[in-house]
Write a structure and sequence with these properties.
Blueprint lengths: L10 H35 L1 E5 L14 E5 L2 H4 L7 E5 L7 E8 L4 E5 L2 E4 L2 E4 L13 E5 L4 E5 L9 H4 L2 E2 L3 E10 L5 E2 L6 E2 L1
Antiparallel strand pairs: 1-2, 2-11, 3-4, 3-11, 4-9, 5-6, 5-8, 6-7, 7-13, 9-10, 11-12
Amino acid sequence: MEQPVNSSPQPKEQGASLSTIRAAVMNWTRDLLIALGLAAVIIVFLYQPVKVEGTSMSPLLTDQERIFINKFVYRFEPIQRGDVVVFWYPRDKSKSFIKRVIALSGDTVEIQQGRVLVNGKELDEPYVPAQFADRSSLAPMRIPEGSFFVLGDHRNSSNDSRVFGPVPGDVIYGKAVFVYWPVERFGALPVAGSELQ
């Protein structure tokens, strides 16, 4: 007479299986915590989330958009014409502004009815749509050593170096690099160097 087969796992096999699952969960949890810790370090020390307020950088950045800025990039490379930078407002250091670098230290900048000239050559500015351009003028100005001339892309709605003058480099604390909210705008900001014609 055949004996019925007991298909239920033996206690030893069950214990081994539970300890394998437990080890896998522990490893997964450890890896997740390490990844979260590294992400926190990167965000805290290298990148900083900021909220855009206002329309002075439209259409590149819109009001209430959330972006990441790179806080360390300028320790390794110089600020360049065309960079979108975040800085402490020279007239009130409790406020931050975001603008585009138009002229560098030692450059001479001039605006003739909305046309921007740097060192006597017109700046090619594809990031300024016709509807956001203005017709203002500014007498030639030489940018002091260690300072930068900045403008908003929405020229007829921007408080920038036309109003408060060149920005000292030591108040610039980051470069805008990535939009993370809203989701439909998620992605790296385009690199748009400002070319002299």
